[in-house]
Amino acid sequence: MTSTLITGANTGLGFETARQLIDAGHTVYVGSRDAGRGRQAAEQLGGRAVQLDVTDDASVRAAVKVIEADGGLDVLINNAGIAPEWTDDGVIGAADLTADLMQQTFETNVFGTVRVLHAFLPLLQRSAAPVVVNVSSGLASLSRLTTPDTSAYAYAGVAYPASKTAVNVITVQYAKAFPAIRINAVEPGFTKTDLNANAGAQTVEQGAEIIVRMAQVSPDGPTGGYFGNDRTFPW
Ligand code: NAP
Predict the structure, then answer these.
(1) Alpha-carbon distance 5 to 49, whole Å?
(2) What is the 193 CA–ligand 1 centroid distance (Å)?
(3) Looking at the annotation, which residues are catalytic?
(4) 3-228: which CATH architecture?
(5) In ligand 1, which atom is closest to the CA atom of 80?
(6) Which of 95, 104, 202, 231 has the smallest set of CB atoms within 10 Å of its CB?
(7) How do residues 41-93 score in pLDDT, each as one tens digit?
(8) Which of 120, 108, 165 is nearest to 4 (CA)?
(9) 85 vs 211: CA distance, rounded Å
(10) Domain ranges across the chain
(11) 51 lines ligand 1 (CB under 6 A)
(12) Burial status of residue 177 (CB atoms within 10 A of its CB: 0-12, 13-18, 19 or more)
């Protein structure tokens, strides 16, 4: 049975990804920084709750121990993410960007991803068919940020896209370093979740599709790529 960990799976895209992968037969560890919300989500889904705050070393180490004791990990989905630049007064752009906002965003989206990857690598390396999915964003694409007439071009924020571009770099460099692991970045598309106060254009079912597909990639499938539901994204 494929063993899968999803960070930030108590709600949004992570929760829906868990639902679809449980349907597909995976044993899913529902990662949640809040143990209570995680337990509730895992019960609802038929998954296994694991407390995991990606910004906290002790919490990540404890999650490794739990999953290792249960038998190991085949698929890691780095889904937990934040966008503190999205405020009730609009997007915080370059004029108001502070180092604190940048640091807060990177703490979860970038350092959190590396913390979880680093901690779970030994378990993934013991899997017969290891897979990593890094949930990125269309806003991570420097090509699109610099191409007029794309939705990304018009976007004014700095911290969130920069953090997801860093996730893309992490993806390609880990993919080269660990050729036995399929490691890809995905862009779910603008999806109604708490992250954007449900302003997204898609449902979570639609958004989770590419995450679920890349979580099930076969050992001869792509690695080091950047994929959306219907196309490969330009870096
Ligand atoms: P969401 O509904 O806000 O879910 C985010 C999840 O991440 C929540 O479970 C949240 O936990 C968790 N999280 C935040 N900080 C964490 C931490 N320190 N440790 C562990 N978990 C943490 O947002 P979403 O839209 O589903 O986002 C999922 C991923 O998709 C993110 O990486 C996001 O950047 C990406 N994405 C979203 C969209 C979109 O349009 N929605 C588009 C492109 C990419 P709490 O419930 O405790 O806050």
Answers:
(1) 10
(2) 8
(3) 137, 164
(4) 3-Layer(aba) Sandwich (3.40)
(5) 7
(6) 95
(7) 999 999 999 999 999 999 999 999 999 999 999 999 999 999 999 999 999 99
(8) 120
(9) 24
(10) 3-228
(11) no
(12) exposed
